[in-house]
Amino acid sequence: MQLCDFERPATELAQQLLGCVLRHGTTAGMIVETEAYLGLNDLAAHASKGKTERTKVLFGPAGHAYVYFIYGMYECLNVVADREGSPGCVLIRALEPLSGLDLMYERRKWHGPPVGLANGPGKLTQALAITRKEYGARLDEGDLTVREWREKPQFEIATTPRIGITQCADWPLRFVWANHPCLSRRNS
DNA sequence: CAATAGATCATCT
DNA sequence: GATGATCTATTGC
Helices (DSSP H) in chain A: which residue ranges? Predict the structure, then answer.
């Protein structure tokens, strides 16, 4: 995708990213679950507290990576949405592993079906080795990219409340590939 | 099965 | 000093 393809409201981009391919080096997966975070009015969004050292990339141009460290253990990957100055973003929550599975197994130290390799925000960053080193990276080219299929896969999008937050917890901003086996936690 | 505890630290008050 | 866009292991029915 081109940088300008990311330049749209987070709720739109979140749905557009479903069915796209996230690649880092030789590992790649298809995005099957996303969440939109809106900005100043969205108390669940990091950007709602204003521009800080951590969140500054959210206020920049779309199509860059916002990676943050959470719970002292995990990294989470977001795609910056919206125009420069509008801090919307999309959290990537789950992938269907496509290539580099052996590397993913090694990184995750996981012994189970491939479905469990990247079905969660903290799991997919571990599987693809995405860290704060990738903070601010552009996603249209380079080592870490988001690409669309030549022909977009057909599937149904389901909408649910976001997971793991306490504020604005009832806003319907989580989007999933309906009934896909690689969704985080229980399906819907 | 569901519920809970513990790991563990950057960021912001 | 408290908190958090999580995950895994363990405990309790």
Answer: 10-17, 101-108, 121-127
